[in-house]
């Protein structure tokens, strides 16, 4: 087992990983920018190293400084959290070259899944259902038209190097296609320095359903069920649940089995999330994230398994603590992402939190790095906490969520809490009847 883990992140996820390390008796080092000197993860860690000024590229993305911090403190492993360097294959390679363990998959696996065309090809080869579309990059208009006619309109043009929902264009007719192809390519080139694009069938009303998987790096793979993350705004997840209100046990076991076998075949090591669009009973692979996800606590709530413990165990060579048959799904869990944002316009609302009071009681978990008097720096993303609620079934979970939202107090800044108080009383949400467009339509109506 590791002696000392360096946590290369900030905010709630740095604290989340720190808690797991403490439970496992592993010493912790955190790195931080000058803007985060007062952060909770810095206060609670065994050691901390300031690695640079506020902009991420000078601190949390500065590989040299982070490796130097490992050398100075004698850390033998790095947990990257999510975002920042968590899906940076070069970072994983550099750590390996310094004999420091990256708590995550190999650089090669990160690379495959980071290229969407390559990822889709790999998924298909591993038996994962994919969205019908082009086999690889498409640059010729004639070829694009032939493929679109074959799969049928509407189609979506996507950037191979894409991320964050950028570089995607929908074409409903052959006339649209010409423009969509040209704009997607130029946007992709500008945003990612790579103008390769591919074509997929555009699904009109899918849900976003993702499978939590784990590989032990030695040919064993398991799945921890699914999460439904269909409630999104501008491709950003807002509310996540496990299990999905749309799946039955048989579908869960079927797609879970396919995903577990795929990570086993790949020789994958650590946590991963295989994301699908789901429509009319069919799953369509869109991407795989090779890291821990923001929404992992809903899976922990229904399985009772600490996924960060598992990541650390696997990375240290200790293997998974569970077999597939040990993983049981109990009740229902919902996570609300509490952002420091105006609940109507979603513009960031940095500033000082004058009062912070979190709900408690059975089935309530709050993951947050903030406290009363904390000043939110303007440099990073606006997530200030996550409320995760568990109940024996979805109805109980929703009742408890409504109560917990009433108790939650964040004064001094705007937060997305009022949005969740609205959502929890909405009949569609109560019925689990929503797709990936539901939230944007709801917000447009409220305007
Ligand atoms: P990114 O990595 O940029 O987030 P994804 O491939 O994960 O891109 O897609 C992001 C979102 O775009 C999906 O959650 C979905 O809302 C939409 N999307 C992507 N592919 C399709 C498709 N074939 N049909 C309909 N919507 C899609």
Automatic annotation (TrEMBL):
Q: In which pathway does it act?
A: Lipid metabolism; malonyl-CoA biosynthesis; malonyl-CoA from acetyl-CoA: step 1/1
EC nos: 6.3.4.14
The protein's GO terms of the molecular function aspect are: biotin carboxylase activity
**Keywords assigned by UniProt, alphabetized:** ATP-binding, Biotin, Fatty acid biosynthesis, Fatty acid metabolism, Ligase, Lipid biosynthesis, Lipid metabolism, Magnesium, Metal-binding, Nucleotide-binding
Which stretches make up the ATP-grasp domain? Answer: 120-316
Which SMART domains does the record cross-reference, listed alphabetically? Answer: Biotin_carb_C (SM00878)
In this chain the Biotin carboxylation domain maps to: 1-444
The cross-references to InterPro entries, in alphabetical order and at most eight, read:
ACC_Biotin_Carboxylase, Acetyl_CoA_COase_biotin_COase, ATP-grasp, BC-like_N, Biotin_carboxylation_dom, Biotin_COase_C, CPAse_ATP-bd, PreATP-grasp_dom_sf
- Top EC class, one word: ligase
Q: Which reaction does it catalyse?
A: N(6)-biotinyl-L-lysyl-[protein] + hydrogencarbonate + ATP = N(6)-carboxybiotinyl-L-lysyl-[protein] + ADP + phosphate + H(+)
Give a short account of what the protein does: This protein is a component of the acetyl coenzyme A carboxylase complex; first, biotin carboxylase catalyzes the carboxylation of the carrier protein and then the transcarboxylase transfers the carboxyl group to form malonyl-CoA.
How does it associate, per the subunit comment?
Acetyl-CoA carboxylase is a heterohexamer of biotin carboxyl carrier protein, biotin carboxylase and the two subunits of carboxyl transferase in a 2:2 complex.
Q: What is this protein called?
A: Biotin carboxylase
Per the UniProt entry, what species is this protein from, by scientific name?
A: Mesorhizobium retamae
